[in-house]
Amino acid sequence: MHSLEALIVELYDKQVIQVGSFKLKSGITSPIYIDLRVTISYPSLLRRVVSCLQDICRSLSYDILCGVPYTALPFATLLSVENGIPMVMRRKEVKDYGTKKAIEGVFQPNQVCLIIEDLITSGSSVLETLGPLVKEGLLVKDVVVLLDREQGGEDNLAKHNIRLHSVLKMTDILETLKHSGRLSAEQVDELYHYFRSTPISSSLPPSAIKSGYKVHQLSFEQRLPLIRNKVGRRLLEIVLKKQSNLIVAADVTTSQELLSIADEVGPQICVLKTHADIIQDWTDSVSEQLVHLAKLHHFLIFEDRKFADIGNTVELQLTGGIFHIAHWADIVNAHIIAGPGTIEALSRSAEHCGVLLLAQMSSKGSLTVPEYTQKALEMAKQYEDAVFGFISLGCIGEPNFLYFTPGVHLQERGDSLGQQYTDPETVIAVQGSDMAIVGRGIIQSSDRRKAASTYRKACWDAYLQRLGDDK
C-alpha cells in the first residue's frame, strides 16, 4: 500500500477520522470529522504526520515556523526541533498582565513565517493566526496543512495572497477509505455529495488581517461585572436573558413603519437602532409609544445620532430640540473628532444613557484609520462610567467594552453608496464583535418576524462558536 494510503487507513483505524454528525467551527454540520489531536497519543503516527508535512516544507523558503493553536502546535514543534528552524507561538488568549504579547518567541520584522496547520475548512483558524503575525511585521506567504477539506479554504487564503500546500485532500481520504473497505461505496457517494454542495464562504476580510483583531474568549456572563456603565450592564442582562445579540437598524422615514418594525422584531432583538431625524412625522407621542414597545418586548433603544460638536451644543442636542433624545434613548453614539468635550457632555446623562464611540465604520473609503481608532479607545478609557462600547468592525480593545458592528447581512455584499456587508460568523466569531447591527436584511424582508428570528439565531450561534475552539 502507498505510504499516504497507509497513513489514511491508520488515521481512520485510530479514530482520527470519524463518520457521523459533527458541528464544525464554521457552524455547519458535517458527516465527517478529522480530530488530529488524537495523534499526540500515538508517537509513531505523530512522527509519520510530521514527516509528510516536512516533505512539503523542504520546497518552501521561510525563516521561522508558527503552528496554529492548538492542534498544530505539536506538529510545528517537531518540525522546528528536527530541522533546527526557530518557532514562534500565537497566544489564543492574550493575557492582561506580563508582556501582554500576542506572539511569543524571538523574531524580527520582515522575517518570513511559515504557518503550520492540521486541517483547513474555511481557513478561519489560519486567518486568526495570520492577523497577529502580520501586525508584528512578519511576512506570511505559505500555509502547510495535513488535510484540505476542499470546502473553500484554499480560495479564501488566496484572497489574502497566501498559498495553501496540503499533504492530503478530502477526495484522497474518501477514495482510500472506499478502496480499503473502511467505507462503502454508498457512504462515499453521500460524502461526495455533501462536499460538493457545502462550500464555506470567506471568514475574514483583508482589513481584519491588517489590524489583527483580538477575539475575547470570555463569555458575556464573565464580562458583565467588567462593564462600568449601568446601561451597558443592563444590555448584557437582556442579551443573556433573550439569548440575542441582534440589533435591528430601523432606518425608515415614517413613525408608523418605525413602530411596526419595533413591534414585529422586538421579541428577537436586544436593541432597536433609530434615526429620529429622518422620521418625517416625529412627535413626543412616537417616542412614548417606542418606549412602551421597548418595555413590552424587553429591548433597549439606540438613537444613532452620531454627536460630533462642542460640548455645549451636544448637551442641547441631547436634551432639547424637537426630539428630546435624553428622554427616551437608552444608548447614543458620538464621534471623537471634536475632542473630549463631546463625551463630557454626554457623560452627564450616564445614569440612564450609555455612550458608544465611533471607532471604525463599515462604509467604503472611511477615514477611521488605525490612529483614529486608537484615539477613540484611549478616550473611552477616560470616560468609562459613560462609554461602554464602540461602533467598530470587530474587537479593538479590552473585554470591559462591548463592540457593535453595522453592515451585517447573511449574504456578503455591498450597495451603490459604499456600504459594505459582512456575515454574522465573520463579524462575531472571527473579528470578535459582540453585537451585530442588521438593517435591510430584516426591515426589507416580506416576513420581518421570521427574518429577525433567523438573524438572531445566526448571531447567537456565532457568539457560541467564538467561545469554543473546535475546528
Task: Describe the structure in your own words.
The chain folds into two domains: 202 residues, Rossmann fold; 248 residues, Aldolase class I (TIM Barrel). It is 40% helix and 18% strand. It is an alpha/beta fold. Helix 1 crosses helix 2, helix 11 runs parallel beside helix 12 and helix 13 packs parallel to helix 14. In the C-terminal section; belongs to the OMP decarboxylase family. In the N-terminal section; belongs to the purine/pyrimidine phosphoribosyltransferase family. Keywords: Decarboxylase, Glycosyltransferase, Lyase, Multifunctional enzyme, Pyrimidine biosynthesis, Transferase. Pfam families: OMPdecase (PF00215).
SS content category: alpha/beta
In quaternary terms, these chains amount to single chain
| End-to-end distance | 30 Å
The radius of gyration computed from the alpha-carbon positions, rounded to a whole number of angstroms, is 25 Å
**Helix percent band:** 25-40%
| Number of discrete domains | 2
Q: Per the principal axes of the C-alpha atoms, what is the gross shape?
A: elongated
Low-confidence stretches: 202-212, 413-419
Largest sheet: 8 strands, parallel, barrel
